[in-house]
Amino acid sequence: MNYNPSIHTLSNGVTVILDPMELETTNVKVHFNTGSRDETPQEQGITHFCEHMLCKGTPRFPNKKAIDDYMDYWGGTRNAGTGNYTLEFFGRILGENVDKLIDFIGDTLQNSLFDPQRIELERTVICDELRRAQDNPDRQFSDFISKTLFNYATASMRTLGSIENIMSFSRDQMLEFISRRLSATNCIICVSGRIMDTDAVLSQLESTFAFLPTHIVPENTEILYSPSIAHYSKSDNSNVKLRIGFPQLYQETFENRYNNMCLSRFERHLTKKLMNVLRQDNGLVYGFGAWGVGNEKFCINGFSTQTSAQNLERVVALIAQNCYNTYNNLDITPETIDRYNRKDRLEDADWLESAGRRADHLIYFYRNFGRLYDYATSIDMRNRVTVSDVIEKSRGYFDGAMSIMTYGADFNADLASVWRDNFK
Q1: 187 & 258 share domain
Q2: Residues β-bridged to residue 408
Q3: Domain range holding 80?
Q4: 58 occurs within a structural domain
Q5: What is residue 204's three-state secondary structure?
Q6: Which contiguous run of DSSP H or E holds residue 294?
Q7: Do 98 and 235 fall within a single domain?
Q8: Pairing with 273, which of 200, 206, 321, 413 sits 20 to 30 Å away (CA)?
């Protein structure tokens, strides 16, 4: 698969990544480095509300029917999304019509109406979205973990805000917020797929996004970790969701990429062994996998599974015993590393063969490291991983303050004591 992206900077500072592919369609993603973690408590939910209103019409496209008719005519789709540190507008269109999609996204960002009547209607829609999220067990557990370990630093429901906040936001407040948080300096645009005329695309991006201001937008990257053993009781459940985590050894920096690549081999090897012990040998769980939560500055990494309340103590004991044995007698081999490398090549194909995922990958790498992703260098780095480096880079994995988070049926076991008694 051809991979030859290039990076450009518009006159106002917007970063542009062009990623040509031999496809019939083109993906355009406009990414702003801002999200729910950058909001004050009184603002929680406002980025998400603004995202909704930035998709609800402009003078040219005053309603959903006008937008859908336009997209259908030119063979395109469009959407938007909000996260803890992202606000994105994106779409896919037939390659020869990419100018229509760029024009549409630019118009959306510059000329959205924020119609007062539409704002009031959207309040009820977002409140309904929040209620559905609050009823979702996975989101309940995710937010419980975030609140307990990080004081909501990464909570999923923080993105949606509260009913009180949703009902309080005024039109002026939303317009002031987006004028403050959307800037050329925190904007990355990626065009992946069919690019027929590079100069024409860059010229259109230059004129379309010239309206963006150039002020610096601060980011809230602080995260406070409070190690905890905590349970979210759902007494009507029969199973218990279990998460065990330890602070990451290496921060996600460009310089630490090799360290983290070696560490990923250790984590994968350990996770596979634990899966075999818990499911194949003892039949205690249906699934078992790696787990992580945090942000680009700090993360908790470990394991995720669920089991019955009566089996929970045994599951934790087996995890602790096998973590200790594997850590101290690491039996990973060069053949095992080669197998993991081949599996990673398959995962690489997942994003290499998808324009949408390539855009995500390129934006993520540039946002975190300030440069283009070099696929060839990454492959070379992967092929240089050795058994001795995996052993060396994984030392200290279990030294950090552990957290054990559970959700579901109640139980009597002291899981911290179970871990200490068996991690030996």
Answers
A1: no
A2: 233, 240
A3: 6-208
A4: yes
A5: helix
A6: strand 288-294
A7: no
A8: 413
Tally Cβ neighbours within 10 Å of residue 388.
Answer: 9
Are both 202 and 68 inside the same structural domain? yes
pLDDT in tens, 331-382: 999 999 999 999 999 999 999 999 999 999 999 999 999 999 999 999 999 9
Tell whether 354 is covered by a domain.
Answer: yes
Global confidence as pTM:
0.96
Q: Is the pLDDT of residue 129 over 90?
A: yes
Counting beta carbons within 10 angstroms of the beta carbon of residue 383, is it exposed (0 to 12), middle (13 to 18) or buried (19 or more)? exposed
Which DSSP string do the residues of 381-392 spell out, in sequence order? HHHT--HHHHHH
- 160 and 302 inside one domain: no
> In sequence order, which ranges of 151-297 are alpha helices (DSSP H)?
156-160, 163-168, 171-181, 198-208, 257-275
pLDDT digit string, tens, across residues 46-99: 999 999 999 999 999 999 999 999 999 999 999 999 999 999 999 999 999 999
Separation between Cα atoms, residue 318 and residue 316, nearest integer Å: 5
Amino acid at the residue 246: F
Kindly state whether residues 174 and 301 are assigned to the same domain: no
Domain end marker among 178, 208, 238: 208
CATH classification at residue 81: 3.30.830.10
Question: How many domains is the chain built from?
Answer: 2
Pairwise CA distance, residues 105 & 211, whole Å: 13
Asked whether residue 224 is assigned to any structural domain, the reply reads: no
Going by the DSSP 8-state scheme, the letter that residue 151 receives in this structure is T
DSSP of 308-360: EGGGHHHHHHHHHHHHHHHHHS----HHHHHHHHHHHHHHHHHHHT-HHHHHH
Task: Look at residue 101 and tell me if it is in a domain.
Answer: yes
pLDDT at 222 over 90: no
* 8 Å CB contact between 188 and 366: yes
Reading the block at residue 279, the tokens are 């499911």
Of 181, 171, 166, residue with least CA distance to 109: 181
Rg (CA), the chain: 24
